[in-house]
Amino acid sequence: MKTHPFLRAYLAGIFVPTLVLPLILTGFFVVRFVLKVPVPIERAIIFPMAVVPTVFGLWNMLYLGSHERTHVPIGLHGALIPLLGAPLMAAGGSCLGLLAFGAGGVTYFQTILVPYGLIAPFFLCGLAGYYLVWKYIVSYLNRVMGIA
């Protein structure tokens, strides 16, 4: 099975977010409809459900194409996604009016205030999570697909 390695890399990359995002959507439904928190689901989760699997797949294709030249470990390669994506998403969210940066923190959808002191620890946990997902799950899927 040596044909279409980039297609197989894309499929291995989209596996994890395709499984996890419906669980997150379920959590949003519980928060919105059971706990009555006014979070606009369509703006908070539907767009990421379309973008995140594609980003994971394309990022895995980039890893496959560049690994022979760069020799970056796959866990570190996966941890670069939030480092590059967080500033882009913050800038885009600010331009679209989804995020507002204030003196005390970031206001998300004009309803949820997140203090700046909580952003750094959650970001570091996200980096660690991405590293572990890519090191163990995506690398395993790459081996199963015959592209590692």
Structure characterization notes:
The protein is mainly α and 148 residues long. The protein has 4 helices and 3 strands, in the order αααβββα. The protein has one domain. The model has no long low-confidence stretch (mean pLDDT 87). The protein has a 3-stranded antiparallel sheet. The longest helix is centred in the first third of the chain and has 30 residues.
* Count of distinct strands: 3
Net shape: globular
Spatially, the strands of the biggest sheet line up as 1-2-3
Estimated radius of gyration: 17 Å
Topology (SSEs and partners):
Blueprint: H1 5-34, H2 41-70, H3 74-96, E1 99-101, E2 105-108, E3 112-115, H4 116-144
Antiparallel strand pairs: 1-2, 2-3
In short:
The chain has one domain.
What would the keywords be for this entry?
single chain; 148 residues; mainly alpha; 3-stranded antiparallel sheet; 4 helices; 3 strands; globular
